[in-house]
Amino acid sequence: MKKIIVSLITFSLLAVSCSDFIEKEERGTQTLENYFQTAQECENYANELTRRLLIPNDWWTLVAPRVTNEMSTDDAWMGNTGQDSGAHRPSSQYIITPDNMGDMNSIYTAHFYTIQSANLGLEKMAASPLTEAQKNQYMGESLFVRAYCYYELVNLFGGVPVYTKSLGTGDLTLKRNSAAEVYAQIEADLKESAAKLETIPVNRQGRVNKWAAYALLARVSLFQEKWAEAKQYSNKVITEGPYALEADFLNIWNVNNHNGVESILEAQSSSVQDKSLGSMLPTLAGARGEDKKNFPSNDAADVLDGWGWCMPTSDLENAYLSENDVIRRRSTITKWGEAAYGDEVLNPTHKFSLNDNKSGRICRKYYIPIATRRSLDKKDGHLPLNIPLIRLAEMYLTRAEASYHTSGDALADINIIRARVKLDPKTGLSGPTLLRQIYKERRLELAFEGLRLYDIRREKDPTTGRPVIESLMGPNGTFVKYNLSSTDPYETTNLREPQDKGINFNPAKNLLWPIPQLEIDLSGGLITQNPGY
């Protein structure tokens, strides 16, 4: 099933105040003019903005394109070889065009829906009769949501239209801003968000707080090579924030450990049976073709049977093996026939359909344990797996990379991360060798957490000075060459997804995705296309 999402421009026409069309007094009817009058109304609005930013229970709008971005890297295949891959193929195989964008259309449009709504809410909240403390809370959360939308848009599409006021019918002449201007707005929103949320308690599960704003500031500073700022904000979160690394790496994605000590921001989920509030990610990326006969219980209640998209590559597995990184490898990848890590008793030989799975592997981070499956009468739409978007380990890795480019002990930070998974510390590394190790630790630590595509696009190869993705993808890319000469028994025997993954990558254009052609057409050509498309 494919949902058609109305474009930004069309939404803007619909979202303006009704007074643009007709003046009519309506008594007893809730409108934009009489909403935002109570703290509960403002909280409900901020909650809805946050939900629309995360939407863990809607597989198409944001979950699918975020997973597709993973498939566009060296970490993941599309994976499902038994169904149509039209939504994921354009990006993952680098054949994307403005008229054939797969599910990248939906994330572009959905974020502008949310930005328009955030702008409207911020205007109305500022004029509401709430106390300053109440305004600060809900406006601070809304500012973060707007900033996060723009953060994803600028990394996926480059410069996009920036607007901070709600649009009316006379405002449909938006042009693209530069990437630098988009980032400037992101930074401004996050700084204002942090300031407004300064005194708001942080122990409110599932809500945005000031530390999320500081952590995202650290990330966007890193992405812009603002090393001093990246170090400043990541250090602030590490040293002043109320977070700690989970003692057990596997516990980060534990269905029974929502909003754990390491979590700064995560999409919420629930297994409440009379509402579909669960995460769709374990279904979208769960093992396809499970059968009760492959479980010790021989019980159909143990079967989840996911859709099989976004399967780990053997190249990623080899990266873990090269470091003897058993804990992170098994917490990230389960190979066909191996025990599910942490669920060895009830799932000692996790098996699924190899005919429908490119790599013979699934992502362990997205896995729902057997005991949880048994507790649910309804599974699809009710899976209680929260999705971490920002966590403390990333801040250590951000500080390490920033320290490499400024001054500081980058090795100390990556060794803190390594110690958690019982790896020996790295010693004596410097120069390009150290930088490559920092990049590698980010890959091993944060695999399947939404950062790999952004990282390989922005990271510079210390030998060539070019983006790392250029050395991995394309006809001469190391990842492409590895796959073409691979002897992996799973990947090379299921060629319904081509083995030359990434061969179509073109550095002249594929460092960004194209702007949807529909948006260019509706703007009358005011919005221009990215180079090469």
TrEMBL record:
Claim: Mitochondrion is one of the keywords in the record: no
Domain SusD-like N-terminal: 94-222
Top-level taxonomic group: Bacteria
InterPro entries, per database record: SusD-like_N (IPR033985), SusD_RagB_dom (IPR012944), TPR-like_helical_dom_sf (IPR011990)
GO CC, alphabetical: cell outer membrane
Domain RagB/SusD: 347-533
Keywords from the named record: Cell outer membrane, Membrane, Signal
Major localisation: membrane
Annotated compartments: Cell outer membrane
Family: Belongs to the SusD family.
Protein name from the UniProt record: RagB/SusD family nutrient uptake outer membrane protein
Source organism per UniProt: Flavobacterium resistens
Lineage: Bacteria, Pseudomonadati, Bacteroidota, Flavobacteriia, Flavobacteriales
